[in-house]
Design a protein that fits this description.
This protein is an alpha/beta fold. It has 3 domains: about 70 residues, Rossmann fold (3-Layer(aba) Sandwich); about 230 residues, UDP-N-acetylmuramoyl-L-alanine:D-glutamate ligase; about 150 residues, Mur ligase, C-terminal domain (Protein-Tyrosine Phosphatase, Chain A, Alpha-Beta Complex). It contains 14 helices and 22 strands. Strands 7-6-8-5-11-12-13-14-15-16 form a 10-stranded mixed sheet, sandwiched between helices. α7 links the parallel β12 and β13. α5 crosses α8, α5 crosses α9 and α11 packs across α12. It is globular. About 45% of the residues are buried.
């Protein structure tokens, strides 16, 4: 929604917005480009009467502004349909989809195209640090040699209260990346087959002259992707670590400040890559982006140049602060698999350091007990675990709700210390006293988490400054 707002502004529209509670980085980004966000929702936010209201998928009946829109018959649209109408038609749409890795992969692909001089348009569900933005709306050059591609993150979540299908079904891409397919969004999908059905419908939209680049592995995740691809009408290229993969990753090495690997294309050496990101999953994401870039004529050397300078995305393994030797990491955790990948990546990057996992169960999946055992196993990868109370627990029936007490018991049973603390303030007060130099604190949430990203560094600065003052006074 924030990205679309910025894109509409570049077209000369006057854009405002409403939210229950906006938080960084998107709140800061919108403020920086002059788009006002009213908080909270109120009828006065629709004065003067807008020409069009874009309704996000978090809005449901009963919202005071939505009720006014319906009662006064103000024209409305979903984000996805307006995006297609205003920006995607007449473009070569490259869609990045999957349960995990969409935002980072979309950012990588946009950066590769940009470094190659292709001047792509893009829309990303986060702030890409290389661009300092979540979107670009480029003009197609004369002759169509640049600006013709639109690289978009394709979300499987529903579109709006009046359109319960996935947003990505509105985009009609020519090229598709499929990173993974797992059960997620337990509030709208009943089970894994329901999720797979959504991705099968997306695959069915790719034209015969298009292309799909999809994750390849021999495990359950790979089997799920394969089921979604079974009836594809276009060429499909698989990427991964398996020998049979069209794009095969080899010689993966994790260093203290970088990751390196090689890629074989159809069994032959094709490229060598290096970037500053950590994690096996980011190597998979980069390889998928590289495969698509190759299909658009971008040479491996230029792809390597782009990846070497890629700076990730806000809230994806983002180092928020380093205070007194304590490193604080922010990651947009939403699923046990993503949490496991994040913690594994941090273990690889910070070998020998004590790793804390601090989780806010906030996503519609994590707030439910559907993945309780998997979540415990993921968190147990850390050396110490703190879990906050379930976000808006009252909105989830107790029988369906994640039991934090049981989660803590499961983590402790796995041999790792764990505890529940009510909120960000309690967590900050505790962690500030317990962390020591060399510790890494991974804060896992897909929301604002009570401002913990700012509160914890501030509290640590106060602690260490106090310690220095006391030491100086003693001397």
């Amino acid at each position: 929604m924030a990205s679309l707002a910025g894109m509409l502004q570049t077209r000369g529209h006057r854009v405002t917005g409403s939210d229950a509670a906006a938080y960084p980085p998107m709140s800061e980004f919108l403020a920086g480009i002059g788009i006002t966000i009213a908080q909270p929702y109120a009828a006065a936010n629709l004065v003067p009467r807008p020409d069009l209201v874009v309704v996000g998928n978090a809005i449901s009946r009963g919202n005071v502004e939505l009720e006014l829109v319906l009662n006064q018959r103000i024209p409305m649209a979903s984000m996805a349909e307006l995006l297609r109408e205003e920006f995607l038609q007449q473009r070569e749409v490259i869609c990045v989809s999957g349960t995990h890795g969409k935002t980072t992969t979309t950012s990588m692909l946009a950066w590769i195209f940009s470094v190659a001089g292709r001047d792509p348009s893009f829309l990303i569900g986060g702030i890409a640090e290389n661009f300092g933005s979540s979107f670009a709306a480029s003009e197609v050059s004369r002759g169509g040699k640049s600006g013709g591609e639109f690289i978009i993150e394709g979300d499987e979540y529903d579109t709006a209260f009046f359109d319960k299908g996935p947003k990505f079904l509105h985009y009609f891409p020519t090229t598709l990346i499929l990173t993974s397919v797992e059960f997620d969004h337990a509030d709208i999908y009943a089970d894994l087959p329901a999720v797979e059905t959504a991705f099968k419908r997306l695959v069915n939209l790719i034209p015969q002259g298009g292309r799909i680049v999809a994750y390849d592995s021999g495990d359950a995740a790979g089997a799920s992707v394969q089921r979604c691809l079974a009836k594809a009408f276009c060429p499909v290229e698989r990427y991964g670590f398996d020998e049979a993969a069209h794009w095969r990753i080899t010689d993966l090495q994790f260093e203290s400040a970088a990751t390196t690997w090689r890629v074989q294309k159809s069994g032959k050496a094709w490229g060598e890559f290096r970037f500053a990101l950590a994690g096996r999953y980011n190597v998979l994401n980069a390889t998928a982006a590289a495969a698509v870039a190759d299909a658009y004529g971008i040479p491996a050397e230029k792809i390597a140049e782009a990846l070497a300078s890629f700076r990730s995305v806000k809230r994806r393994l983002e180092v928020k602060a380093e205070v007194g030797g304590v490193t604080i990491i922010d990651d947009f955790a939403h699923h046990p698999t993503a949490i496991a990948e994040t913690l594994t990546a941090l273990q690889e990057r910070y070998r020998g350091h004590r790793l804390w996992a601090v989780l806010e169960p906030r996503s519609n999946t994590l707030r439910r007990k559907v993945f309780q055992a998997e979540l415990a196993a993921s968190l147990a990868l850390a050396d110490g675990v703190i879990v906050a109370d379930v976000f808006k627990a009252e909105a989830i029936a107790e029988a369906e709700r994640l039991s934090v007490a049981e989660l803590i018991a499961q983590i402790e049973h796995a041999g790792k210390p764990a505890r529940c603390l009510a909120d960000a303030d309690a967590i900050v007060a505790t962690l500030t006293q317990e962390v020591r130099a060399g510790d890494v604190v991974a804060i896992l949430s897909n929301g604002g988490f009570g401002g913990i990203y700012h509160k914890l560094p501030a509290a640590l600065r106060a602690r260490f400054a106090g310690a220095e003052n006391r030491a100086g006074g003693h001397a």
